[in-house]
Amino acid sequence: MSPAATPLLEVDDLRVSFATPTGMFHAVRGVSFTLGRERLGIVGESGSGKSLTGRSIMRLLPASAQLSARRLAFDGTDLLTASPRRLRALRGARISLVMQDPKYSLNPVMTVGSQIAEAARIHGGVSRSQSRQKALAMLEAVRIRDPERVYQLHPHEVSGGMGQRIMIAMMLAPEPDLLIADEPTSALDVTVQLQVLAILDDLVRQRGMGLIFISHDLELVASFCDRVLVMYAGRVLEELSARDLSAARHPYTRGLLNSLPRLDDERAELPTLSRDPAWLEGP
Fold first, then answer.
1. Were 41 and a residue from 67, 135, 157, 221 both cysteine, which residue would form a disulfide, CB within 3.0 to 4.6 Å?
2. Is residue 207 part of a domain?
C-alpha cells in the first residue's frame, strides 16, 4: 500500500487471550499491520494465530476471549468501541468472512440458493425479486455448472469443493469492501482454484476491494498476493512483498520455504523446521 493512501483497515498491537486452568493463554500477541485496497497474505503453521486474527477484525470471538488493541479500525470506524448494531451493519455488507469449512457455515435446512439470495437481500440491499437473479449470477461467477439446479440443492447434497465455492459466492454477493478469506481454496482442485482466485483478483482490481488471504500455501500466496505477513506463535515475525517471499531472511520463513516438496528436489528427506525460543519474543 502506498504510504500516502488512506488505509482501509488499521490494526495496531492486536492481542487476544483466553483464560485457562493453568493461566492466561496469549493466542495473538501484538499483531500490527495496515491494509489498503490490495491483497494481503497471512501465512504460518496451524495454531500461529492466522484465523484468530481474521475473526478478531470482525469481532467474531468466543465470549471467553479477551480482545485489546491500540487501534482496530475499518474505514475510519473504531471496531473496538463500535456498538453491536454498528458491527452487524458492517458484517456481511462491508466486511465478509469465508470460513475454512463450508459445511459448518451453511444452514442445513435451507437451499444454497436461498442462502445466497438472503445475503444479497439483507446485506446487499437488493429486492426480493432481484435477489434470486443475483444468487444465480454469483453461482455462475464461481464457475458452478447449471446454477438453476444447484440453487435448489441443500448443503448435504453438494461436494466439499462446490460447498466452498457456494460460500465464496454468498460472501461476495453483497460486494463487500473487505473480504477475509480463510483457506478459501483448500477444498478446490487446481483448475477451479485458479478460477476462484481470478474472481477475487478481479474484485480487488476492478472494485477496489481489500483482501486478507489466510493460507498454508506459501507458493500460492507468493503468486497471488501483494504483501505477506508471516506469523508464528501469535506474532508477526516478518512482513515483506509477496514477490520477495523466496528471498525472505527470517529463519522461520526460510524453514517453511525449505520444507516445501519440489518436483526437481533430489533430497531424500525434507528438512524439519528447527524452532528458536527467541522467536516467541517477536522479530
1. 221
2. no
The model's confidence at residue 262, banded by pLDDT at 50, 70 and 90, is confident
Q: What residues does 14 pair with on adjacent strands?
A: 31
Name the E strands within the chain: 9-20, 23-35, 39-43, 65-68, 71-74, 77-78, 95-98, 178-182, 210-215, 227-232, 235-241
Res 275 pLDDT > 80: yes
Q: Is 245 part of any domain?
A: no
Mean pLDDT of 256-265: 80
C-alpha–C-alpha distance, residues 27 and 163, integer Å: 29
| Overall domain count for the chain | 1
What predicted TM-score, i.e. pTM, was given to this entire model?
0.89
Q: What domain range is 153 assigned to?
A: 101-175
255 within domain boundaries: no
Residue 226 placed within a domain = no
Closest CA to 120 of 73, 165, 167, 175: 175
